[in-house]
Amino acid sequence: MNAPNPFGWFKKNIPILAQFLDDQLKSPDVKELVILGDLFDTWIIPTTYLPIKSFDRIIANKENKPVIDKLIALAASKDIKLAYVPGNHDMSMSAGDIPGTKNFLETNFPGIRFFCNNDVPLGSFKVGTLVAEHGNRYCLFNGPDLWTNSNSFLPLGYFISRIVSYKVLKTGLEQDPREIFFKFLREFMTKPDFIGNMLNAIASDAGLNPKSKIKLGVPGYPDALSVEEIGNKYKDLCLNWEKSPGNINVPTAIFSDLGNLSFAASLAYFMQIGSKIDIVIFGHTHIPAMNNPAKNTPTSGGDISIPGEIPSGYIYANSGTWVDKSQYGCTFVETEEVPNERRHYVRIKGYPGNNVVNGYEGFVEV
């Protein structure tokens, strides 16, 4: 396809991202650029289309060339390091795909560093006391599913994205799949069979029914499955999640799916005994946010604005998103370590303009 998909999330912001990448390439102050996933989207595909199984079609689309060219230049730069951490929209579908994804990125963007586990499509970028990852691993519907199909990682969120993409294709009306998902999740999450009921409601909203088929042919799945069959496959999602290792329970995982990952960041990093991490950066939620309580001040996890001269005990920052429909515009997280001040600054900024968003800035002592 030689034009942006009508159901895609990222069209008008392509030149804006290309200009942002060019700015970083030319900046004498930027030493490292870390992309926290979802740049190569294989999820936003209508149910009647064959799914995308690799990034080749994305990189070959001439509409994406401005961004691809700048990424190639950044990867080759001697002055800036480029890192990539996968998100849910570009995570591998099976363990066998992970080496292929790594090879694809390193071949097409020589010099890029791909941070991903060998057996599960999760990765994190760590330097000093800072960690950055996509954040989907803490979300019930978007974390890699390790139980439903032994040959696949696809979570239920993948199928929800494809159903909503079908709705956009058929109606011609732009939709925010996250708003649709939030609406039905809130409606059904307290009901005993909420997985199947919610999926059927989302399908009905898109003009589909329980017998409607979704084209697949991906690892662990036949060539097609009905909405009803998919709901049955994932009916034990909550039970399976509770049995899995980790300290993120189902309520927290649902809360994370609703758009707030700050509590998950605390459980995963800040509250861990012996943890030396004091800065956590996630993406995924599409909502720029910061939680940075003053040092030695108890907090329940809510956002606290810290005056410029008061250090934070820790900082959670969410980078937001660059999708066209974002109500917050294009946002990113900037970090700056100033050794002579013994401070590590974190700021959420908007682009164009590079202005701090909503006063989201703070620092930890180093």
Describe the overall structure:
The chain has 366 residues and is of the alpha/beta class. It folds into 2 domains: 14-147 and 241-365, 4-Layer Sandwich (Purple Acid Phosphatase, chain A, domain 2); 156-240, no CATH class. The chain is 31% helix and 17% strand. The chain contains 11 helices and 13 strands. The chain has helices at 14-26, 56-60, 65-76, 97-108, 156-171, 177-188, 194-205, 227-233, 237-243, 250-257, 262-270; strands at residues 32-35, 81-84, 113-114, 125-127, 130-132, 213-215, 224-226, 279-282, 289-291, 315-318, 330-338, 343-351, 355-365. α6 crosses α7 (194-205) and α7 (194-205) runs antiparallel to α8. The radius of gyration is 20 Å and the shape is globular.
Number of H- or I-type helical stretches: 11
Q: How far from one another are the termini?
A: 49 Å
Number of strands: 13
Structural class by SSE content: alpha/beta
How helix-rich are the residues, as a percent range?
Answer: 25-40%
What is the general shape? globular
Give the low-confidence spans: none
Indicate the mean pLDDT. 92
CATH domain fold name of the largest domain = Purple Acid Phosphatase, chain A, domain 2
Counting structural domains, the number is 2
- Main-sheet strand order equals 4-5-8-10-9
Largest beta-sheet details? 5 strands, mixed
